[in-house]
Amino acid sequence: MRVVVFGAAGRMGAEVCRTVHADPDLELVAAVDPFHAGKDLRAVTGGVHIAGMQIAATGDEILRTNPDVCVDFTHLDAAVPNILWCAENGVHCVVGTTGFTEAHIASFREAFTKSNCLIAANFAIGAILMMRFAEQAAPYFETAEVIEFHHDQKIDAPSGTAMATVARMAAAKNAWAEDPTRKEVLAGSRGGRGAGDIRIHAVRMRGMVASQEVILGTTGQTLVIRHDTTDRTSFMPGVLIGVKKIAHHPGVTFGLDSFL
After folding, report:
1. pTM, rounded to two decimals
2. Do the beta carbons of residue 135 and residue 168 sit within 8 Å?
3. Mean pLDDT in consecutive groups of 10 residues from the start of the chain, 260 residues
4. Catalytic residue among 75, 154, 244, 249
């Protein structure tokens, strides 16, 4: 399979380039990043060298490579046109970018008629299981809160994983105990309200990669479900699954669950 990576110079994009290049079933045919256009690929990946391959500025520059799948780890403003470019050109798309609105999602569903798209808040298999276990536990508890931890370069909060987690928990249980708080001494100290009014607390900490705790409580007991990402390589097995199976999942799919 012929693969293109959008956001190739970012930390996740560079890791995807290295992973795709090392997989015998895949061929990295192009890398796109407008902020590093014209650079040799190894300058941003720390060692992956493909003769003659330079970072492209836009998708239009790499159409000649005839890609089967594009992988996008960019940011919201870049990802939307990248995804629609894939749909227009009949290229499958695997997306790790988050923050899409309902309008974005509707436009993606309408656009992907010639190829398929996977959008996942998290590609770490352990994180997917953490979300699934939280969803399964939700009906048996009365209160729940989520704490998500990320590195100090992450610009959005809460994380897409946290938002997806509480959405699944809220769908599994439609009524939670009322929050007893009547006064916040510091505004925002109780966190943000996600789906089902489940509280989400976002920590941004130097030295972190990504972790999440789901804390559920009921009479006389609590349950903590935690997943820790200690290295970005943890996302790569999930990305490879998405790339290799995307052709068999028509339209737009959210979450890696159905690929596992």
Report:
1. 0.82
2. yes
3. 94 92 94 89 76 82 91 94 96 93 96 97 93 97 97 90 95 93 93 95 94 97 96 93 97 92
4. 154
pLDDT of residue 38: 86
- Look up residue 54 and give its two tokens: 């330079």
Q: Please tell me the number of Cα atoms within 13 Å of 41 on its side-chain side.
A: 25
Could you identify the residue written with the tokens 């398929």? 116
Residue 201 falls in the annotated catalytic set = no
Question: What are the backbone dihedrals phi and psi of residue 193, each rounded to the nearest 5 degrees, phi first?
Answer: -95, 120
Q: Tokens standing for 8?
A: 């190739």
Per-residue three-class SS string for 158-219 = CCHHHHHHHHHHHHHCCCCCCCCCCCCCCCCCCCEECHHHCEEEEEECCCCCEEEEEEEEEC
For the chain, the C-alpha Rg in angstroms (whole number) is 20
In the sheet where 192-193 sits, what is the strand order?
A: 192-193, 199-204, 143-150, 210-218, 221-229
Identified catalytic residue from 150, 173, 201, 245: 150
The whole-angstrom separation of Cα 114 and Cα 120 is: 20
User: Hey, which bits of the chain come out as E strands?
Assistant: 2-6, 27-32, 69-72, 92-95, 117-119, 143-150, 192-193, 199-204, 210-218, 221-229, 252-254
75: which DSSP letter? -
* Strand ordering across the sheet containing 69-72: 27-32, 2-6, 69-72, 92-95, 117-119, 252-254
- Cβ–Cβ under 8 Å, residues 134 and 198: no
The counts of H helices and E strands in the chain are 7, 11
Q: What is the pLDDT of residue 51?
A: 67
Q: Is 249 a catalytic residue?
A: no
